From TrEMBL:
Keywords: Menaquinone biosynthesis, Methyltransferase, S-adenosyl-L-methionine, Transferase, Ubiquinone biosynthesis. S-adenosyl-L-methionine binds at T66, D87, N115, A116, S132. SUPFAM superfamilies: S-adenosyl-L-methionine-dependent methyltransferases (SSF53335). NCBIfam families: MenG_MenH_UbiE, PRK00216.1-1, PRK00216.1-3, PRK00216.1-5. It comes from Zophobihabitans entericus. Belongs to the class I-like SAM-binding methyltransferase superfamily. MenG/UbiE family. The lineage of its organism: Bacteria, Pseudomonadati, Pseudomonadota, Gammaproteobacteria, Orbales. This is Ubiquinone/menaquinone biosynthesis C-methyltransferase UbiE. PANTHER family: 2-METHOXY-6-POLYPRENYL-1,4-BENZOQUINOL METHYLASE, MITOCHONDRIAL, METHYLTRANSFERASE. It comes from the Bacteria.
Length: 243
């Protein structure tokens, strides 16, 4: 199935991504748990561990959406640290901000509406940047990776958590079936929105595989880039450093 999201002109893709996330913002967390059977929590826990965050550091949770990673980072950096939750979509940012404030997390978090392709931060600013399930939605991924490299401190690290290519053909088939049939159905039943969840499936399929993304990070300037497959490669965690 090809919904043609990569073939549409750039501005149209930007508008469609915006529509999708305005539409799913309210139901995003519950759908995340349902669709991944809660496993996204484990993927995110491993992401946090790979950041090796210390007190006082500055962290960027890019395309941070409803702020799952930001909540953990906020505890880890302490009162002298800073976590910026940046997202292009104000509906997602609002849901994230309300959720984190309800948890009493206010001291060290800032919210910034920003496009990953043109980050509004100074050079060499962050100790760690994460982009979790966000990069596949970005129109110009190479530009975004270069922008992340610019705002990262020398010695800092980028972690990209994203859907990737399942490593076993049977798993690949089962996963295709799940994404193109079960996901839109769940989207329809729970959120009354099958189109957005069809977009999700299509954007996952179009996203670069493990080695392509590794090369893209290297081309953007990152060093010592490696990746770890999770859940048979359904998701991969890519790690790269700015030297
Ligand atoms: N990081 C969160 C998580 O792991 O649960 C949210 C992921 S959600 C699937 C993808 C997020 O990427 C959405 O909140 C969307 O608004 C954001 N996004 C899409 N394109 C973006 C861009 N160009 N720059 C910044 N954020 C973007």
């Amino acid at each position: 199935i090809d919904f043609g999201f990569e073939q549409v002109p750039k501005q149209e893709k930007v508008n469609r991504v915006a529509d999708v996330f305005h539409s799913v913002a309210d139901k995003y967390d519950v759908m995340n748990d349902l669709m991944s059977f809660g496993i996204h929590r484990i993927w995110k826990k491993l992401t946090i561990e790979h950041c090796s965050v210390r007190k006082g550091q500055k962290i960027l949770d890019l395309a941070g959406g409803t702020g799952d990673l930001t909540a953990k980072f906020s505890e880890l950096v302490g009162d002298d640290g800073l976590v910026i939750l940046a997202d292009i979509n104000d509906s997602m940012l609002k849901v994230g901000r309300d959720k984190l404030r309800d948890k009493g997390l206010i001291k060290n978090i800032e919210y910034v509406q920003a496009n990953a392709e043109a980050l509004p931060f100074p050079d060499n600013y962050f100790d760690c940047i994460t982009i979790s399930f966000g990069l596949r939605n970005v129109t110009d991924k190479d530009k975004a990776l270069r922008s992340m490299w610019r705002v990262l401190k020398p010695g800092g690290r980028l972690i990209v958590l994203e859907f990737s290519k399942p490593q076993y053909s049977l798993l690949n088939k089962a996963y295709d079936l799940y994404s193109f049939h079960v996901l839109p159905f769940m989207g329809k039943v729970v959120a009354n929105d099958s189109d957005s969840y069809r977009y999700l499936a299509e954007s996952i399929r179009m996203h670069p595989d493990q080695n392509t993304l590794k090369q893209m990070m290297t081309d953007a300037g990152f060093g010592d880039v490696k990746y770890y497959n999770m859940t048979g490669g359904i998701v991969a965690l890519h790690l790269g450093f700015k030297f």
